[in-house]
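Pilot study result, target chain (188 residues):
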Amino acid sequence: MHPAIVLAAFIVDHSALTTELTRSSTVLKMVQTEKKLEELGIVLPPPPKPAANYVPAQKSGDLLFLSGHLPLNNDGTLITGKVGTGGKTVEEGYQAARQVALNLIATLKAELGGDLDRVDQIVKLFGIVQSTDDFHEQHKVVNGCSDVFFDVFGPNRGVHARSAIGTNCLPLDISVEIEAIVRIKTED
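Predicted structure:
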């Protein structure tokens, strides 16, 4: 067989193999974060719908800005009430922030077409805790969200900058509201 024909056949076969490998790695890549969620026993709720005149996420370049999310349980109820003296404990606040994290991840998944592996980095969280005047452990409450992001996305993608503040009230009497800024990978 003529060398040019052999070379042409190799190029065609190589191209098909490269395409197949790319497809296979994309399929494998798309399930890594989903696999981690499964390992952790986490079932994501449906992404929450906005409660007012805003969008749940806004993309700018490779950043995705997630609006403040609420501690909405899977059954549609909200976790409400102040954290602190006469109200919720730090652990109850932590669990509320954990639920916010699941809602944020559900929104991320919806915004990224189902591919959570497109999350390149959780850049920053901003957590607001409805708390009593004598409560000073808002950072421990917001750890509920931070811990979920670390567990799900790992040390390379899940560690982030963060602010945690207290306030005397939040909309709908919710215990915690958290915003996120996430750097995303472009679609291949």
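One observation from the pilot: The helical segments are 3-30, 32-39, 90-111, 138-157. A full batch analysis is planned for the follow-on phase.
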